[in-house]
Write a structure and sequence with these properties.
Helix content is about 40%, strand content about 30%. Strands 1-5-4-3-2 form a five-stranded mixed sheet, with helices on one face. It has about 160 residues and is an alpha+beta fold. The longest helix is centred in the first third of the chain and has 21 residues.
Length: about 160
Amino acid sequence: MSILKSLSAAGAALLLTAPAAVMAQPERDVEAEEANRALVTEFYNQFFNEHETVESASVIAEDYIQHNPGVPDGKAPFVDYFAGYFQDNPDYQSEIVRSAADGDLVWLHVHSTNGEEDLGEAVVDIFRVEDGMIVEHWDVIQPVPEESANENTMF
């Protein structure tokens, strides 16, 4: 058999088995995902909008893992960091524009501002939830510009 025929046969076999691989994915637990999303959004609003750092942190794991290089690991250092930040920035607010969950991950698309005149930042926060506790966090942060090359908003 020629190389081209072998590759064609292999490609066809791969295409035929791809639907089976997709179908073999574990079934999603939408109820658990929604519970994770509710846990994270409630925490986020209480922590970042009401600035109730101690009270809201009851859902943060003691060994919390932080991927933002400016914020320390661990529950106590996380709370201390933001308690100081909110003391220096009492007008800081974070509006959750949309949220989604998939398995143990919850995504938030957020518009954060520090006062009425601040254009703010577009933020995507990703939290990992384990056994009803927030155990890990990643974020991507982009300033909202005064002018845009298009008519779309960042939200």
